[in-house]
Amino acid sequence: MIYSLTEEQEMIQEVARRIAKEKIIPKRKELDENEIFPREILKEMAEADLFGIFIPETYGGLGFGTFETCLALEQIAWGCAGVATTYAASSLGAYPILLFGNQEQKQTYLPFIARGEKITAFGLTEANAGSDASAIQTTAINDGDYYVLNGAKQWITNAGEADIYTIIALTDKKKGVRGASAFILEKGDEGFFFGKKEKKMGIRASVTGSLIFEDCRIPKERLLGKEGMGFIIALRTLDYARPGVGILGVGLAQAALDESVKFAKQRKQFGQPIISFQAISHMLADMATEIEAARALTYAVCKYIDTNPKDFSKYAAMAKLFGSDIAMKATLNAVQILGGHGYMRDYPVEKMMRDAKILQIYEGTNQIQRNIIAQVLNKEYGKGQIK
Amino acid sequence: MKYIVCLKQVPETEGVKINPETGTLIREGVKSIINPYDLYALEAALQMKKQYGGEIIVLSMGPPQVEEALREAISYGADEAILLCDRAFAGADTLATSYTLAQAIKKIGNFDVIFCGKQAIDGETAQVGPELAQRLDIPYITYIRKIELKNNTLLVERLLDDGYQVVQINLPALLTVIKEIGEPPLPSIRGKMRAKKAKILLWTTQDIKADSEKIGLKGSATQVVKIFSPPSRGERQMLTGSLEQQARELKDKLMTIMGK
Lengths: 387, 260
Description:
The complex is a heterodimer of chains A (387) and B (260). With 387 residues, chain A is an alpha+beta fold. Chain A has twelve helices and ten strands. Chain A has helices spanning 7-24, 28-33, 39-47, 66-79, 81-100, 103-114, 230-266, 278-305, 313-338, 340-343, 349-359, 366-382, and strands spanning 120-123, 139-143, 146-157, 164-170, 180-186, 192-197, 208-219, 223-224, 268-269, 272-273. In chain A, strands 1-4-5-8 form a four-stranded mixed sheet. Chain A has a four-stranded antiparallel sheet with strand order 2-3-7-6, covered by helices on one side. A two-stranded antiparallel ribbon of chain A has the order 9-10. The longest helix of chain A is centred in the middle third of the chain and has 37 residues, at 230-266. Chain A is globular. The two termini of chain A are 34 Å apart. Chain B is globular. In chain B, α2 runs antiparallel to α5 and α3 crosses α4. Chain B has 260 residues and is an alpha/beta fold. Chain B contains six helices and 13 strands. The chains are: A alpha+beta (387), B alpha/beta (260). Chain A binds chain B through residues 7-8, 11-12, 14-15, 18-19, 22-23, 44, 47-50, 53, 62, 346, and chain B through 183, 186-190, 192-193, 196, 242.
């Protein structure tokens, strides 16, 4: 479909597409099977300016927005959802600095992020704080010119591989969520360690692990915003990042559709290509329709975000929810259409199916997304905004 | 350092057909691309620029549409582009082409390294690079897979049939490059934005002070008399499937032929 992209948006799309086609697809199977972190590919992406899309020109970026970032992410996900997760997680870690950092913090970190010389990670989740993020226990105690962190973060994308981390920790335990604050940590900080690398079902080209803080002392200049703003920063960051998961789903689902149609056209059974059977062709038609709907929704949400609205949680949640759900469905159907071939690792669709599942879980499960949407609806109707 | 990369726009040879009656290429519907070996030449220049600094000028001869290929080269990281575009240049063989390119390079002046692809996939002559070096009276080495700058000379690896040679060469020099140099370059977003705005210099016969007797069809010592598709050489079969399956199938077929 024609989305009336500007010339520059088309360029971004093309650059990402070529990286996916020429650098990612030829290597994705190996990265998946051997669980390799895609250093080389990230370097290529950095050289192609893909890490600086949403970073202002003042800080060495290209000065575009969420929409342009999503256009690139969609193409990378079309190549490999594992590489795309690594890429997306790096913007997740950068958003808190971009949105809430002071001049000095932005100057210190953003140029490196824009050039892709340093990648980032975001640490909120803990062993006992998943969907209930307010249950975090990691503390950051104010000690004069320093904060001292203790605790652990779990299932953090890019753990150990990233250079810059945004961490949410409690500066005042008594205040609950209002006592949370956000900090910038650097790999190599005293008392900052990494736990074991997790073994995952899918997205194996991305690294997931834990962050451990043992009397980790960081200068007080690493505090983002003010004490007590931690949750506001975390939620706002997730609002910005969630459409990214939606578009990651769209890219992945598109790849599954491409494989399915290609196969269905050439695979012959009962003397004809299987695409001529309605059982198959209707599955393909549904996949294509849902992908286009998810793409249109996510593009619209991203464009809305780029107008700097006050609150867009509902729409961000919708994009994440729908894009990931249709990706799961499309990849399941792709395996079904390819049949025995699809189940074998010689074809890419079984990997796509394994990769898709996480999209319904990370950055807030799809159940949590529905909660967010419903809460906003409740509020909107309560205010009598809907006539 | 100043690098010059010569590149040629060619028809994508996959799917190129020859009109059996006229003996000419059927150009309709065939995409034009940068000669793949010239992309390796550009990659070599980009590698050198990254390591030692400097600027890359891409140079081509051809009709106005070649501007597109030069813009593509800028999106990969070239700094400047010059197109030698004049009706009088048309119909040139390698002799006339190398003369024309040499005149342009003399006008550019002060270069350190000229990079060419080892050959073009349409003409397949591999002559322009060496001829160009001869005309500029500079040393050249062909089939380069690795380049290193050392004490103001180049240390290069030249691929041979049974190994490779390490050759030291004085600057300025011309190198023809093979695909072992690295993967072809990819565009960057900034590169594409720059390519869109870049001014491509257009030079004519007068601009490069070329002798009209030495350019184009007039300056060509050779003429293409006839082009034809060779008749197919008997029956062929393509084997598909995994390497193992193919090997097994091949073995079975050979056994059958040998009557075993």
